[in-house]
Design brief:
heterotetramer; A: mainly alpha; Butyryl-Coa Dehydrogenase, subunit A, domain 1; Butyryl-CoA Dehydrogenase, subunit A, domain 3; 2 domains; two-stranded parallel ribbon; 10 helices; globular; B: alpha+beta; Butyryl-CoA Dehydrogenase, subunit A, domain 2; 4-stranded mixed β-sheet; 4-stranded antiparallel β-sheet; 11 helices
């Protein structure tokens, strides 16, 4: 037993982090926000070339032949960098929808449990659906997750996407963990720099303890995500999503509180983390669904 | 313990209700949030109607041109206008609730005569220049400098979180007039015309996507010494006196609005089926209980204010604000649970409200600062070293 | 409108506080704990003589002729002093069970929603029940709330005590508020006296903020209780119980946290507040019941 | 990321399981909680069986008489003994997990030879004399004085929160040997015989009604200088070295126990009908998820410890302890919801557990202290002035 990432896994993570730092740093992120263009086709292809989407496809099918543990590590990095777009759906579509694996196709999914779908206007396909349905654009709270509302008869039945729910939830949880870890960093950096009453605000216990609880939440959620990636257990996947959703949302809010008025501005990145965390919390599996699934497994295990 | 109203108060409410029923349908269409001149005109128009009907400056002292109403009458006014869906105080906020009361309490006769009537009549708009980028919770550390030059102050610095700056006539400005003094003792209160040379307004976009606030940059702006209210370097005390004007009524309209929102949430949940989830239903039930208690706490504070000299001290408000700001954020989280994925759409009004509510635990004293105030000033716990 | 207690009401409250300070101060409380005798018949009669039980009985029936507002004020004091015994049930029994009004009878009630009943061994009667049922003694967590378990067929039906539930809940809420206010005082006193790291622990923001939130909880709950006493509205009574239960339990726990190890000892009074708060939270109306009642009223009011 | 066990580890687990299945039925009846001599005999008896079976001092270095097991083997040992319902380490806790490792790391050869074998064999019981009534979170401010008198220290003071003091042979004692030095630099570590003249033990009753702890009063107690471990005034460092012995395994048994409790709660809720309340059911589901994650975090910490020199630093444990102590208190609150009014009865074992759990956010570093540690030592935030 060595639960820590292997050297290869760490190298993979570092590679993706470096790619994103160069290709989707803060300026690129803010440029996306300003233009309202969430999916950058060039970046999408580069991610595809780096194996982001084909990661778990067997080498015989042109994939990288790795597993969920590697996938959650790279998705964590994407969450940290706030990369927009239907990363999870496209990854799940690798080997199913042509071009998904290579990043030449953008694939979204009906993962919001209803008639809303994200990134429809930028997508080439919808996972588990025949063709691209029409949709009415809806003004979205997250500036980098455009939404459309689709006629109810064009929403795929639960069964058509059921096979993807667990993996979709887990990879989404990994994105949440990346965001939760990133907001700890943002809060700590601000708390160390911002001075009030003659000292950095991070010297005040109230701020210090907010930051400490943020780290606790993020670390527990990260562990749950890694464990679920290793074992693939249904309960562990549900726990991963539940804890990661909570960590991402609560950390973004605490990060905002640490930032004070500055955190309330459009210019700060905090709100982008919070809004994206809200989106992801609705994707694939909500907290109530995860808790019910866990309750069921608990009762089964108790015999 | 009496929660009934006097005959006089009931009569006041009835007449107000009648007037609102008659007046509100006559109002012009509301301007769009981005139309600042339109908003100014709309808000001032509403203020003029209040003035003509005798409701302007309800809570101001009579000698300042106000109606000298009791806190209870003010509570009734705020409750009824919110219930009826009347316009929010809007552009008149600073004039009616902060700068005006400050001038009424601390200004000279000439200053009162110059600045108060236009506020009551709906002729002039004030904005507030207190906060600075580097002085958030630590407001008294503000650095905008005012240097005497003859009969003027020459002012350089920047202010932030200024509402209605684009359309204001005057700014109540806190400036540092003595950089050598302890931080609370070197501040002065000035009335600055917003069209003075050297004033630049830059809209500040919030996370809700709106530009409700602005930054105000001051580059050698000249303000006559005669437009200082109160003594030089006494501005911190001068600005604190207005807190007592509020007399427990600061959140009346907002609590009424939250209670209405809860009712709408219940109806929506009933309609979309989520009401059948006992966990969500109980969450809404608990919030209904909490906002009911907050309404009663408002009545308590108003009762205190009505019978005590000088109104409610700011520290009583800290208890209320801590409970209220938390409950209101929780209200919009519950709204998101009622809406499900639809809460991700800005077309649901609660989504925008949810975003705005993120400021409640930060603005006007963060919850951390409020807890310090409660612990030190009410509970008497020692200051940290 | 003047929501504050009148001069007469303040005088009544001060009188009960003085009576309890003299008759049931800390030494008497600890003596009860040591002996395990919860109901002191002498004190019970003195409370009776002071009008504690007959407070709301009309003067024509030998009562004091006051109302719920006066009752919640005196119950708040009893809660502050941690007076043990079935105070609420005996008060409700005034005019119904002989001797209750005068404090010569001790009356308990099946207010725990099942087959457990408090103070049965010390009681002369059970509200809404015919005769005193037998019961098996049960070891109780609160040393001053002895419990018995009664055969199910001896438990009164809901309807037999239904008329008392709202007032019982409200008066119990008043006891909770008294305890919640008292634990704020205990925490603040300890925080001001106890030194660690060279200063009173109350100078640390973490402790300070715990205490501040305790006061907020207690004050909101107190307002809810007073308002419910004035209006008697069903929803307000439910809110009063809900918020007062939360304030008493959470404040006792935070008070314990402020006390650190000292709070974990039997000698500190903190645990007596916590255990009693747990008992009262189960009496008359639980949080879930109160929330459901409030939800119903909310929906009705929303039309 | 590998959560599988090696063949060797699987074999270790299988043999241990087999041994437990054979041994546990042979154990005598458990003594009552108030029977301290009985508890001592029972716990030492269990230790002797472990010793004879080769499991004593599993995680101790081989040169200290231990088995030099890996952290993973230690995790398996703790997991399997808890699962099988084996006796808790009980009276052997301080000897095996704190005083013993300290002596192993810092003691002289003679000290190791004198004190370690009796701990492993189950012959001697140690207790801990660290905390003092006036030094709680601020442990280093301890005031128990030790004054040199020839070859002895003469010790006066008092200690608190000492477990098994009534039946211990030795006490690992922190005393102040230099009152002039900075507080961390004037402390020494002594082994004090509990039967020395001047030692008085007074049971300390907790809010759970039990007397698991005692106060120890020291009135001119003489301890030979030779029984000091480490250098004079170096006791703070000496006692900190044992933290690294824990190697991430500190809460293994407790997490396993909590997971079992959750299963029992689910069964009870199913039986009494409360399982049908979705709010309660989801609360239990969430706890199941949280304790699952805490189990994985334990495996993570053990993996870290196994591959890093010196084991897991104490600060990694702070993250775990913050999450764990909160989750465990929440577990017993959920248990009370499952039981309803029956939670007021001490005859439900969870009620006693609930009372005991109130110490989790206080003992061994309050949650407030843990948050300071996380913020300052992991996140690098500045110390307050």
């Amino acid at each position: 037993m060595d639960f820590r990432p292997t050297e290869d896994q760490r190298a993979l993570r570092a590679g993706v982090r470096a790619l994103l730092a160069g290709r989707y740093g803060r300026e690129a992120l803010r440029a996306s926000v300003d233009t309202g263009v969430a999916v950058d086709r060039g970046l999408w292809r580069e991610l595809g070339e780096a194996g982001f989407f084909a990661l778990r496809l067997p080498e015989s099918e042109g994939g990288v032949g790795l597993g969920l543990p590697e996938a959650v590590l790279v998705f964590e990095e994407a969450g940290r960098a706030l990369v927009p777009g239907p990363l999870v759906a496209t990854h799940l579509a690798a080997g199913v929808v042509p071009g998904a694996a290579a990043g030449t196709a953008v694939v979204t999914a009906f993962d919001l449990g209803g008639d809303l779908v994200a990134h429809l206007g930028e997508a080439d396909a919808v996972l588990g659906a025949a063709g691209l349905p029409d949709g009415e654009p809806v003004r979205a709270a997250d500036p980098l997750t455009p939404l459309h509302r689709v006629a109810p008869h064009r929403v795929p039945r639960r069964g058509d996407v059921g096979a993807y729910v667990a993996e979709g939830a887990l990879l989404t949880a990994a994105l949440q963990v990346g965001s939760a870890l990133r907001t700890v960093e943002l809060a700590v950096r601000h708390a160390g720099e911002r001075e009030q009453f003659g000292q950095p605000i991070g010297a005040f216990q109230a701020v210090k303890h907010l930051c400490a609880q943020m780290l606790v939440r993020a670390e527990v959620a990260r562990t749950a995500v890694y464990a679920a990636a290793v074992t693939g257990g249904a309960g562990e996947v549900a726990a991963a999503k539940l804890l990661a959703d909570g960590a991402a949302v609560d950390n973004a809010r605490d990060c905002l509180q640490v930032h004070g008025g500055m955190g309330f501005t459009w210019e700060a990145d905090v709100h982008l983390h919070l809004k994206r965390a809200w989106v992801r919390a609705e994707q694939w599996r909500t907290a109530a669904e995860a808790e019910e699934l866990l309750a069921e497994e608990l009762l089964d295990s108790a015999g | 313990m009496d929660l009934t109203y006097t005959d006089e108060e009931r009569d006041f409410r009835a007449r107000l209700r009648e007037w609102l029923a008659k007046t509100l349908p006559e109002l012009p269409a509301r301007p769009s949030p981005d139309d600042w001149p339109g908003r100014r005109a709309y808000d001032l128009g509403w203020q003029r109607r209040l003035y003509e009907a005798g409701y302007a400056g309800l809570h101001w002292p009579v000698d300042a041109g106000g109606r000298g109403a009791t806190p209870t009458q003010h509570l009734i006014f705020l409750e009824e206008t919110e219930r009826a869906g009347a316009p929010y105080v809007g552009a008149n906020f600073v004039g009616l609730l902060h700068a005006g009361p400050t001038i009424a309490a601390e200004g000279t006769a000439a200053q009162r005569a110059r600045w108060l009537p236009p506020v009551l009549r709906g002729d002039e708009v004030w904005c507030q220049g207190f906060s600075e980028p580097d002085a958030g919770s630590d407001l008294a550390s503000l650095r905008t400098r005012a240097v005497r030059d003859g009969d003027d102050y020459v002012i350089t610095g920047s202010k932030i979180w200024t509402s209605h700056a684009e359309v204001a006539d005057w700014c109540e400005l806190l400036v540092r007039t003595d950089p050598e003094a302890p931080k609370h003792r070197g501040i002065s209160w000035l009335a600055m015309p917003m069209d003075a040379p050297g004033v630049t307004v830059r809209p500040l976009r919030t996370l809700a996507g709106s530009t409700e606030f602005a930054e105000v940059f001051l580059d050698e702006v000249r303000v006559p010494v005669a437009d200082r209210v109160g003594a030089e370097n006494d501005g911190w005390r001068v600005t604190m006196v207005t807190l007592s004007f509020e007399r427990g009524t600061a959140f009346v309209g907002e609590v009424v609005a939250c209670r209405r929102t809860l009712g709408e949430l219940a109806r929506t949940a009933k309609a979309n089926g989520r009401w059948d989830d006992p966990a969500l239903r109980r969450r809404l039930g608990r919030l209904y209980g909490e906002f009911g208690a907050l309404w009663r706490l408002t009545q308590w504070n108003v009762s205190e204010a009505e019978r005590s000299a000088g109104g409610v001290p700011g520290i009583g408000g800290s208890v209320f604000k801590l409970a209220y700001s938390h409950a209101r954020q929780e209200l919009y989280d519950a709204a998101a649970e009622v809406l499900g994925a639809a809460s991700l759409s800005l077309e649901e009004e609660w989504t925008l409200d949810r975003l705005s509510s993120l400021s409640y635990t930060i603005a006007a004293g963060t919850s951390q600062i409020q807890r310090n105030i409660v612990a030190e000033r009410i509970l008497g716990l020692p200051k940290g070293r």
